[in-house]
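Please fill in the sequence for the structure shown.

STRUCTURE ENCODING:
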């Protein structure tokens, strides 16, 4: 996917690994200046080095900070400066029995997956509106539509992201600012690799991948894990000037797992 993002500045939260890093790379490849975020400065530096190696002309800014806290969000905003593109990507997940999820786990996932997006959008949305241009994308999940029984608290936060997306899109009506959500499915990331390892399997084993898809996501149409760059390509388009008529929309990049035509 190649679009012209030159002259635009982006912030991608949780962009040191996985889908977030792929999004930061895709935006940089298409000419945007990108603020890279992670909780640890060392991880941010490593991600910047990797993206710079892949895109030698990339313009990158380090924006470390824990987005699950108000102080962390403030630090990231201070490091990122004014942005034209906000990708609310930071997210955490875990597998846990539905009846054994304690309050602190519900609160921990909510703080990172939902409240961080509220805080960043609350700050940047009005600034984008004043400029007459902006792109905000929430990275939700197919799990926000088809709630996984073993990750109810995660699914809940991803449903909440869809509500935030629609509400903020309506609040920014006729402003030149679009707000959308992308819904990935299971994607070949370090996090998914760790999940496979915890089950005594390898994500690089085709049989293990097939078994996971057949049992955990049997409605998948592509019948495989998605690649982070496939999700990033969808996000890059939504950030483009050409995507000006797409707003308030949940965009599915989950390989057909969601069994709906709408």
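FILLED IN BY: designer on duty
SEQUENCE:
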């Amino acid at each position: 996917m190649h679009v012209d993002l030159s002259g635009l500045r982006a912030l991608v939260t949780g962009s040191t690994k996985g889908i977030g890093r792929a999004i930061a790379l895709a935006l940089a490849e298409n000419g945007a200046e990108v603020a890279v975020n992670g909780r640890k400065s060392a991880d941010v530096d490593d991600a910047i080095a990797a993206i710079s190696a892949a895109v030698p002309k990339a313009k990158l800014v380090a924006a470390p900070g824990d987005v699950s806290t108000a102080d962390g969000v403030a630090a990231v905003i201070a490091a990122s400066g004014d942005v034209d593109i906000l990708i609310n990507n930071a997210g955490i997940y875990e597998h846990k029995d539905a009846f054994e999820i304690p309050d602190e786990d519900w609160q921990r996932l909510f703080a990172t997956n939902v409240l961080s997006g509220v805080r960043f959008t609350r700050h940047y949305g009005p600034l984008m509106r004043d400029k007459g241009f902006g792109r905000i994308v929430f990275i939700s999940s197919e799990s926000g539509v088809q709630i996984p029984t073993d990750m109810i608290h995660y699914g809940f936060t991803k449903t909440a992201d869809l509500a935030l997306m629609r509400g903020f899109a309506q609040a920014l009506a006729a402003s030149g600012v679009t707000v959308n959500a992308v819904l990935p499915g299971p994607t070949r990331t370090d996090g998914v690799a760790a999940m496979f390892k915890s089950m005594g399997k390898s994500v690089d084993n085709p049989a293990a991948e097939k078994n996971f898809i057949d049992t955990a996501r049997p409605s998948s149409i592509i019948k495989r894990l998605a690649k982070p760059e496939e999700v990033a390509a969808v996000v890059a388009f939504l950030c483009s000037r050409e995507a000006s008529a797409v707003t308030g929309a949940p965009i599915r990049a989950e390989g057909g797992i969601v069994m709906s035509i709408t």
